């Protein structure tokens, strides 16, 4: 009976350790990311980060590559044609 109890305790401890090092770490990472989204300070930091990235983009001479420009232009022309056909 003692051997069964020892084996059970060792198995439970091993399962707890494996859980903490695998699934537990992933859950902690997810919790940290969601805390950033749901706290007032985290949202302010995100807004400031977006603003700084927008300022960097404005300072660049050409933000888009040639193929990106062509693709966006074709998309806008298609949208215009669809909107004009709705009239």
Please give a structural write-up.
The protein is mainly alpha-helical and 87 residues long. It has one domain. Helices cover 89% and strands 0% of the residues. It contains three helices and no strands. The chain has helices spanning 2-38, 40-59, 66-85. The longest helix has 37 residues, at 2-38. The chain is elongated, with a radius of gyration of 27 Å.
Describe how the helices and strands are arranged.
Elements: H1 2-38, H2 40-59, H3 66-85
Estimate the mean pLDDT confidence.
89
| Through-space gap between termini | 84 Å
What proportion of the residues form beta strands (DSSP E)?
under 5%
Helix content: over 70%
Total number of domains: 1
Q: What gyration radius follows from the Cα positions, in whole Å?
A: 27 Å
Major β-sheet profile: none
For this entry, give a set of tags.
87 residues, mainly alpha, elongated
What's the quick description here?
The protein has 87 residues and is mainly alpha-helical.
